Inverse folding.
């Protein structure tokens, strides 16, 4: 789900330049901790799941390492660290679901790989 910087720039430029003319989505930058416009919300018993489409920009502002750690969710709603992959600092990632579990907001960046909002420096909501 990683977008290349050139592809991401093209998407943002096209969507801001003429979204109606080319049928592209528009983007709105919001604070990652704000409540956003939801397309759907559910509670699966292990946390609140929100379907919100956007781009998360990540950076390790917590431990100041070169990579941002991810977690996966287990069936019981607990998290396990992803140990064989991480996200590069200062990179954009597409996210389609946000999940609140144990008072922490997570953004899905892969099938079962999530990044904590503590590492999200910017979030661009994509509507359309």
């Amino acid at each position: 789900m990683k977008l290349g910087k050139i592809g991401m720039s093209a998407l943002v430029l096209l969507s801001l330049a003429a979204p109606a003319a080319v049928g592209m989505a528009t983007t709105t930058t919001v604070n990652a901790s704000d409540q956003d416009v939801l397309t759907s919300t559910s509670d699966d018993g292990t946390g609140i799941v929100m379907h919100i489409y956007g781009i998360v920009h990540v950076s390790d502002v917590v431990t100041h390492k070169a990579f941002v750690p991810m977690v996966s969710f287990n069936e019981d709603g607990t998290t396990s660290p992803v140990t064989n992959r991480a996200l590069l600092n200062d990179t954009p990632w597409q996210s389609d679901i946000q999940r609140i579990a144990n008072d922490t907001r997570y953004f899905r960046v892969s099938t079962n790989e999530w990044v904590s909002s503590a590492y999200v420096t910017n979030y661009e909501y994509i509507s359309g």
